[in-house]
Amino acid sequence: MAIKLExxxxxxxxxxxxxxxxxxxxxxxxxxxxxxxVVSDIDFPPFDRSPLDGYALVAxxxxxxxxxxxxxxxxxxxxxxxxxxxxxxxxxxxxxxxxGAPLPPGATGVVRLEDTVVDGEMVTVLEGKGxxxxxxxxxxxxxxxxxxxxxxxxxxxxxxxxxAVLGKGRPFVxxxxxxxxxxxxxxxxxxxxxxxxxxxxNSNSYMLSALASEAGAQIVLMGNAADDVDQIAHLxxxxxDCDVFMTTGxxxxxxxxxxxxxxxxxxxxxxxxxxxxxxxMPVLAGLxxxxxxxxxxxxxxxxxxSFEQLVRPVLLKMGGRKVWWRPRVKAVLAAAxxxxxxxxxFVWARCWQKNNDILAEPLYFQSNGMLKSAMAANSLIVIPxxxxxxxxxxxxxxILLSD
Amino acid sequence: MAIKLExxxxxxxxxxxxxxxxxxxxxxxxxxxxxxxVVSDIDFPPFDRSPLDGYALVAxxxxxxxxxxxxxxxxxxxxxxxxxxxxxxxxxxxxxxxxGAPLPPGATGVVRLEDTVVDGEMVTVLEGKGxxxxxxxxxxxxxxxxxxxxxxxxxxxxxxxxxAVLGKGRPFVxxxxxxxxxxxxxxxxxxxxxxxxxxxxNSNSYMLSALASEAGAQIVLMGNAADDVDQIAHLxxxxxDCDVFMTTGxxxxxxxxxxxxxxxxxxxxxxxxxxxxxxxMPVLAGLxxxxxxxxxxxxxxxxxxSFEQLVRPVLLKMGGRKVWWRPRVKAVLAAAxxxxxxxxxFVWARCWQKNNDILAEPLYFQSNGMLKSAMAANSLIVIPxxxxxxxxxxxxxxILLSD
Lengths: 403, 403
Known about the structure:
Chains A, B: Pfam families: MoCF_biosynth, MoeA_C, MoeA_N. Chain A is an alpha/beta fold. Helix content of chain A is 19%, strand content 30%.
């Protein structure tokens, strides 16, 4: 009995837990998922500092300085970036200061080097308006105790920089879920093998491995198995350190649909055995202790859509992400879709913006052209169940793919 | 003299070449850039095959089969997936066949297992309409000699699957450009060090390393250097196997702006020394033989925008990509931007779709809040030079960031 997609998604999401956390060196954290709440233990900047190269001084003194009204000051010190000065700046004096250096005591502003003329220790200020604004104040960007980043945040360039500013050189991130993948089918040969009549190469493992990587998982390729219960069961047990076990092939009706028998042999409880979507209906989901088993179709088009709709959200939840679903937008069909739809259907598509519309063009119509479509697609059109053929111009819902 | 952004981009793009290619095992190719033209040396499917589990037969014989008009045939063989049968199917006979198996000689159609009743070797067909359509014909998806993938294609899940189908177990991809990165400034300390007064942690290296990874480069972190010509020059030479050399800090006016001196010492020809954009004006670009040197600002906001606008396109070109620019869309300002703009300005923003509009909200206005903005941004608003303050509702151009 095929169950509804939303129910299948809920069953799977309820069957898995978020992964434990691990510490990872910051330089290896790009695109990992943060597993801690980051609270700043410093103000940032940690001190009042100069945003430019120039002279720290008493701002009020130079407020009206101009080429025809120059103010002459005596330089009392020189602060490089990373340096310090304890000499107080008083009226009539100034302190040379570099970008990023701490303001010396007494200084209430900074004038730009370009607005001064220097002769020995005498500094002539030719433009002083706004000198009091040329200060980055302590805590201006970040306050001590401020909660800055929450668990589940994907570490992008900005987050990397922020973690560094806060001294988080080895932040906690969620472990990546490990997904064992076995391609089954006596017709399948490894990619580098010669092809004999009746055989095809294993492409599902590579396609699914890319999809799993994109979902933040660590794929463990367990190779190919013949249509043989013992062989498949053996490979699954050999990958027992993994968190999710995925097979392709042997999941539909027929003599050689063995995954059900494998589950029986291994004591895996079946959660459901098909989902009413097209393509991707055959999915034999099972659970043993807290490990999830997912038997996908051997058909690449079906396996890809089952993965997108059922496996990806599970991997994102396990990986600690906050958002498990891809963005959806309304779009306009750029060409007719001439098939009627029974079970909810997903169609590879290419979307683009034109004036204020998003147009979506279905890519090929045959599941046999699937790899060409998947290479070119940037989106999936979602057609609800029981929909007649759709004319060009019809409004459709589209899932945006990032790949 | 600051030069225009477009001129700076052209100078840099003309200064670099596409990287050489290398062979990489297919399972490691996700998101790499293909460096060969892939032409199929097979038809795919490589033989006429069954798309389902059922019986191969003479389709014309069962065209009118129905529950009240059953057609009884004799099973003469059984073809598992990966198997073969040489026994010709003739009128009155049928051959059991599994999904993906090659059609036996003589068969012109397949009926579904579910539409038959089997008793010993006798097969009763209850529904035979369309049996002639249940064949995937040889070459239906791919023809031998067909050019399928061109150099510069980023290897997504569909491309991975296609390469596997074609037996490309170790395709040629472009080598990743290696980018040496040195953070300069005596005020900078490594991320795990204790902070003393006047010091801040090195965050630029991490932020830029994430940006470089996203641009398909291999970052080589060379650590921090004090404001010292010899030290910086030494670190640059120590990274001499790299393709691009990036520094942050020491690139604007002032006593401690040393990168110019470093270039002189190392015999690096200056290409330009500032670009009229805000933030990100100070960029000291240099060339020695075919190696590019890029001195970015030490200010994170400036460094990030210089990288986005100047370094990223260069890395994408070197990495063999076809497209060097991010997508741009028209959007509507969700809040006023109250500053007037002299040099072309880039503002971190958050975009979202509302009805038929894309709205863009500027994130903070101070460069000091840069890391918070960069964490939350999904886009950059581009404000042309010499633009007055912009009210909410103004149309703006927006660059979409993928991160």
